[in-house]
Amino acid sequence: MSCDVALHTLFLSQKHLNKIPAEVRAMLPEFGTESDRAAIWREINWIDCFTSAPFESRYPALETALPLLLYLVQGGFLTIDDVIQRCHTNPKRIFQLADQPQTEIEVDETAIRQTDPAVFQSALKQSPYQGMQLPGVVRRVTLRGETVFENGVIRAYPGSGKAIQLISKGTDQ
In this predicted model, what pLDDT tens digit does every residue of 82-137 receive, in sequence order? Predict the structure, then answer.
């Protein structure tokens, strides 16, 4: 059995709605109460995966996911090992994903950047975290030995992605 939580549920509840512009609220899923959010934190050890956004959300939360996670690490709410377990190790095990050789992400954990949706790579230029100072900047992404992102520039061409391979049943990976 597995349990995931969308990152926004760790940060936002109904009490935050009045601080979020209406056009941003419209793309977010329904928020729980502050009591719900507190309950998630009390039971955080049962959660084995973090998702960037729930399925029903129209918010492209991937661009704020890593900075939000690093914010939690810097605040002492999670360790970097907690983040690695819930964003890499556990999903890889749960979904039986094969290793991806020559694949890595280089992150500057000390860099602080103001959240500015205008510079997002995704088409939707809105965020409930607009204006927040968050840590962590992705410097480089290498997939299968090829640098596909470097210092804010996407270097991969459309259609260059490949499906992730599943581990064959009966192997011990």
Answer: 999 999 999 999 999 988 899 999 999 999 999 888 888 777 777 888 889 999 98
Residue type, 70: L
Residue 130 DSSP label:
T
Distance CA 160, CA 50 (A): 26
Label the pairing between strands 4-6 and 49-51: parallel
Model confidence, pTM = 0.83
CA-to-CA distance for 153 and 6, rounded, in angstroms?
27
Tell me whether strands 153-154 and 4-6 are parallel, antiparallel or unpaired: unpaired
The full DSSP string for 15-37 is GGGGGS-HHHHTTSPPP--HHHH
Burial of 164 (0-12, 13-18, 19+ CB in 10 A): exposed
Pairing mode of beta strands 146-150, 153-154: antiparallel
Return d(Cα 62, Cα 67) in angstroms, integer.
10
Region of 152 on the Ramachandran plot (φ > 0 left; ψ -120 to 50 alpha; else beta):
left
Q: How far apart are CA 65 and CA 56, in angstroms?
A: 17
3-state helix, strand, coil in the chain (%, to 5): 35, 20, 45
What phi, psi does 28 have (nearest 5°)? -90, 155
